[in-house]
Amino acid sequence: MISKDEIKKVASLSRILLKEEIEEFTEQLDTILDYMNKLNELNTEDIDPVFHIVEFGNVFRNDEIKASLALDEALKNAPQKEGAFFKVPRIIK
Amino acid sequence: MLYRLTLTEILQMVKERKTNAKEVFFSLKKRIEEVEKYVNAYITVFDEEPEEKGLLNGIPIAIKDNICMKDKRTTCASRILENFIPPYDATVVERLKKSGASFIGKTNMDEFAMGSSCETSHFGPTKNPWNTNYIPGGSSGGSAAAVASGEAICALGSDTGGSIRQPAALCGVVGMKPTYGRVSRYGLVAFASSLDQIGPITRTVEDTALLLNIICGKDERDSTSADIPVPDFRKALNRDIRDVKIGVYEKGLEDCSKAVKENFKKAEDVFAGLGAELIPVDLPHLEYAVADYYIIAPAEASSNLARYDGVRYGFQQWRDDLMEMYRETRSSGFGNEVKRRILLGTYVLSSGYYDAYYLKAQKVRTLIKEDFDKAFDRVKAIILPTSPAEAFRLGERINDPLKMYLSDIFTIPANLAGLPAISVPMGLSEDCLPVGLQIVGRAFCEDEIISIAHAFERETCFYKKIPVFKEQI
Fold first, then answer.
1. B194, B343, B359 ranked by CB distance to A14: nearest
2. Which whole-number Å values give the CA distances from B431 to A39, B239, B390, in the listed order?
3. Which CATH number fits domain B2-283+366-472: 3.90.1300.10, 3.30.160.40, 3.30.70.260, 3.20.20.70?
4. How many other C-beta atoms are found inside a 10 Å radius of the C-beta of residue B197?
5. Average pLDDT over residues B319-330
6. Which of A57, B327, B341, B448 lies at 20 to 30 Å from B401 by C-alpha?
7. What is the dihedral of CA B436, B464, B113, B284, to 10 degrees?
8. How many angstroms separate the CA atoms of B168 and B385, rounded?
9. Is B190's pLDDT higher than 90?
10. Of residues B227, B331, B342, nearest to A17 (C-beta)
């Protein structure tokens, strides 16, 4: 059973504000998490977890300098910018 | 009616100088003008007339709106990316351009590809061209509906848990998810990185083979793309499938709709008639696939979507406090289904729950993969329905997320196991809604499932059935 307080904590970790939808979300996530308990029917003690479904080992490349995105291109989509920078609210008070 | 033809047919006509890319483009534009108001398959439709060049001779293709195209708005059907203009092309787009493709538009989808009905789009739902009271499936519902309605000749979609195959089935077209690693994910907006794969949605298996030839292959910008030779998939067409051993996942049929059961039985008869050897296979852990997927996919999504903070691109709700700005931006920018999955993913990864949920799910993923490995010792491919039922009505499941998730039961396993899978039309329900047959193959053996799918298509010719808009009568 997931509580409203747990949902609030998870929302805060996710940087999401919940308003009136918190009731509905709590109920829905509780149903979903309850369904996931189905996995506990299986004994997985000696089973290795999947980390890469297709195994290739490490992928290396040469350490060469290549062209990257131009500054104006990289800043093009920024909602707020100043000179060569993304603009954010003051952090150091 | 050029818009009704297949890519292969059009290319043949271009070769014989009977048509050209511009005529095809204007035929599609006219069709879009006529039926887009009923379907809503597109988020953006392009106006640039095509240039004839390369293998594809400028024939226009539709692209799902989570695949980046340089200087073309790419929204992911989300408010948070509503005005995002990518400064680069996805590798698949680059490859299509090199092969002479032009583009007709960016197709609608569930927000961030999270959904099975195309209803979570910020730009309104796409509707099923066979009956506009029904959903087209999702998340690549716009791509599938565009191809089915004649608003596109063929399209690209993306598939994380069935997002190409399920809408293809529900719209009566062909959809393929290649093996994980076959197609570069560079420029595909990430949802669940260990599951996402780009693939074609077309009217015929032949067109799928043609597009796969173009989009597959190693890309140094995606370290998970496989350095494995790409065969000419068209050589897999027109093969005899006599004595080919095909596994049948019979248990899957138990809870399927009448239309799926009946048409699946007929499909088995078709394969028997073609001389294939049908062998029942058991995949004992398949019943755990949905629970497994809805831990792994949201976990990866919660991490991937952390980048939407309103600073570098996308929607921003400015506040004088940075943390407040993050919260306001994300809360107004994401829709409810995306929020639910971010919360779910954050929960299963959070301290104290990681082992119980995420690690457990990755172990069950091993069991699901081993089920397929065992089955593939005996058979070349496995057939099962793409979706347990035909399309459902708009609005029917939107407030019941678990019920929505369960409609992915047959498509999710191929993503979890990284295997290639194709959906081909296998008939219509009594209400004239399409159902799909799914063929799952061994890793990097797309050619084998193309052979089987093409043999089935030649025998049944379901692709010749096309939807009629009752609104137009």
1. B343
2. 37, 34, 10
3. 3.90.1300.10
4. 27
5. 97
6. B327
7. 10
8. 12
9. yes
10. B331
Tell me which chain A residues have a C-beta less than 8 angstroms from the C-beta of B313.
77-79
Which positions in chain B touch A18 (Cβ < 8 Å)?
Answer: 331, 339
Supply the ipTM of this predicted assembly.
0.96
Question: B269: burial class by Cβ within 10 Å (0-12, 13-18, 19+)?
Answer: exposed
- Tell me: pLDDT of B1 over 90: no
Verify whether residue B116 is a known catalytic residue.
no
Q: Report the distance separating Cα B466 and Cα B167, nearest Å.
A: 15
Contacts of A27 (CB under 8 A, 6+ apart): none
- How high is the pLDDT of residue B252? 86
Tell me the β-bridge partners of B440: B382, B421
Domain ranges, ordered by start, for chain A: 1-41
Measured from the Cβ of residue A77, the count of other Cβ atoms closer than 10 Å reads 16
Cα torsion angle, B201, B204, B205, B208, sign: negative
> What is the longest distance spanned by two Cα atoms in chain A?
58
What is the DSSP-derived secondary structure letter of residue B214?
Answer: H
**List B117, B121, B139, B184, catalytic entry:** B139
Place of tokens 């039961």: B409
Q: What is the pLDDT of residues A69-86, one digit of tens each?
A: 999 999 999 999 999 999
Strand order in the sheet with B42-45: B42-45, B102-107, B60-64, B155-159, B197-202, B174-177, B421-428, B434-441, B381-385, B245-248, B277-280
Q: Which residue of A has its CA nearest to B226?
A: A56
Whole-number average pLDDT of chain B: 97
Known catalytic residue: B139?
yes
Q: Determine whether the interchain pair A54/B357 forms a contact, defined as Cβ–Cβ distance below 8 Å.
A: no
Average pLDDT over residues B150-163: 98
Topology of A1-41 in CATH? Histone, subunit A (1.10.20)
**Whether A89 and B314 lie within 8 Å, measured CB to CB:** no
What pLDDT is recorded for position B334? Answer: 98
Residue showing tokens 């104006």: A72
Please give the share of chain B, as a percent, with pLDDT higher than 70.
100
Please tell me what DSSP assigns to residue B236: G
- pLDDT, tens digit, for every residue of B359-385? 999 999 999 999 999 999 999 999 999
For residues B210 and B80, the answer to whether their CB atoms sit within 8 Å is: no
Q: Measured between alpha carbons, how far is B447 from B236 in angstroms, rounded to an integer?
A: 5
pLDDT value of position B468? 87
Q: Which two tokens stand for residue B366?
A: 């091993």
pLDDT band at A57 (very low <50, low <70, confident <90, very high): confident
How far is Cα B121 from Cα B98, in angstroms, rounded to an integer?
31
pLDDT at B473 over 90: no
